[in-house]
What we know:
Strand content: under 5%
Distance between the termini: 48 Å
Order of helices and strands: HHHH
Number of helices: 4
Helix content: 55-70%
Radius of gyration: 18 Å
Number of strands: 0
Low-confidence stretches: 16-22
Number of domains: 1
Mean pLDDT: 82
Structural class: mainly alpha
Amino acid sequence: MKKMVTMVLAVCFVIAFSSVVMAAEWDKCAACHKAGDKPSFSKETLLKKHKTADAFIKAAKDSKSPMMNAFKNDALLAPVAKELYK
C-alpha cells in the first residue's frame, strides 16, 4: 500500500512539475499585462505598438517601470518575444 501511495504521489508530482515547466512564456507576463490595459498594457496593445520581436525586447528593456526591472534580460524576454511574434 505504501508503495502504491508513493508511486501515485510521484506521478502527481511529475505531472504538476511538467505543467509548470511547459507553461507558455507569455504566462510569466500575463499577471500584469491583462486585457483592458490595467495595470499595464495588454498583449494585444503591445503587439500593435511593437511590430517586431526586436522592438518588443528593446521597449521592455527601456521601460521606466520598476515592475519591469526583474524582466530586463534576454533570457526572459527572448522566449516571450519568440512566442508572440511567431
